[in-house]
Design brief:
By secondary structure, this protein is of the alpha/beta class. It has one domain (about 10-300): L-arginine/glycine Amidinotransferase, Chain A (5-stranded Propeller), CATH 3.75.10.10. Helix content is about 30%, strand content about 20%. The strands form five sheets. It has a three-stranded mixed β-sheet with strand order 2-1-15. Strands 3-4-5 form a three-stranded mixed β-sheet, with no helix packed on it. A three-stranded mixed β-sheet has the order 6-7-8. Strand 10 (about 200), helix 5 (about 210-220) and strand 11 (about 225-230) form a beta-alpha-beta unit. It is globular and about 45 Å long.
């Protein structure tokens, strides 16, 4: 049995939407987003149920909340508005798109307080009127072991707020620029980068500047991880949008979409499988909104009561 890891949470929050659709307010800066040619609400609901059942069967504790309203098309992505941290701390984040700000739910925070040891909730959402945004673990990919916060600069990721978060929560900020093959800025770090216990998936070629690219690759390797570079096509297939979690007996699992899984080479899958068991789930309807499995899961890094 592989050793458990602080990088891999044993519990997650998942939001199951009843009226899912790609969000028109995020289409301008999310180049991963695609329009739906029919109502995919039921398909998206079923995809979320599939993820929840797959994780629960593997031994991950899954807290499922339903969103029955029709005003928050991106509510399926809770990792953007809150994150949890060892030591009992929770962060709540300011959101770029106005129709995403109502995704923040007091009942989820209250559940965390009831089920886990929460010492402090730090709420940055009051910075939205100042046009300062930091969309959680979409904007930042956190190395919980080496205490590094990787963050792609964007409208949704203000470097000043990254610095502020890192000072309070004890991470070192590593902020950089990244673009797709058309030169369009990457909107969220977690669509191009995943940090696991032993591995790191990253679209290295998307990073702007040879020196910065080499520096980030070096930083990842210095933490002892095997670096798996992703091609632009693999990033577009959400291969970077994966999350390592912990199941039965502390088994480490890499949750990834079937779209992403199909894009990976046999060699890459062999490297991943040497580190953790790969769980591929079909979430194609959700991917129309420009995010995949990792975006759907808010990891819980808190001690249970």
């Amino acid at each position: 049995m592989r050793a458990a890891s602080a990088q891999a949470p044993g519990a997650v929050v998942l939001i199951r939407p009843h009226h899912f659709r790609p969000n028109p307010q995020t289409a301008a800066d999310n180049n991963f987003q695609r329009p739906a040619d029919h109502d995919v609400s039921r398909e998206a609901y079923d995809a979320c149920t599939r993820v929840a059942e797959t994780l629960a069967e593997a031994g991950v504790r899954v807290h499922v909340f339903d969103d029955e309203g029709d005003t928050h098309p991106d509510s399926v992505f809770p990792n953007n508005w809150f994150s949890t941290h060892a030591g009992g701390r929770v962060a709540v984040y300011p959101m770029y798109a106005p129709n995403r700000r109502g995704e923040r739910r007091a009942d989820i925070i209250e559940m965390l307080k009831a089920e886990y040891r929460v010492q402090e909730v730090i709420d940055y959402s009051g910075l939205e009127p100042d046009d300062l945004f930091l969309e959680g673990t979409g904007a930042m990919v956190l190395d919980h072991v080496s205490r590094i916060a990787y963050a792609v600069r964007s409208k949704r990721c203000d470097p000043v707020l990254v610095e502020r978060f890192c000072t309070v929560f004890g991470y070192e900020p590593v902020v950089f620029d990244a673009v797709d093959p058309d030169g369009v800025p990457i909107y969220h770090t977690n669509v191009m980068m995943c940090i696991g216990t032993d591995i790191a998936l990253i679209g290295l070629d998307a990073i702007v500047g040879d020196a910065r690219r080499e520096e980030i690759a070096r930083r990842i390797r210095e933490t002892g991880r095997t670096l798996i570079p992703l091609t632009a096509q693999q990033v577009a297939s959400f291969a970077g949008n994966a999350l390592e979690v912990r199941g039965h007996g502390g088994e480490r699992l890499l949750v990834i979409s079937e779209t992403a899984h199909r894009s990976l080479t046999d060699e890459q899958l062999d490297i991943l499988s040497a580190s953790c068991r790969v769980l591929a789930v079909d979430v194609a309807p959700i991917e129309l909104a420009g995010g995949s499995v990792r975006c759907m899961l808010a990891g819980i890094h808190l001690d249970a009561r």
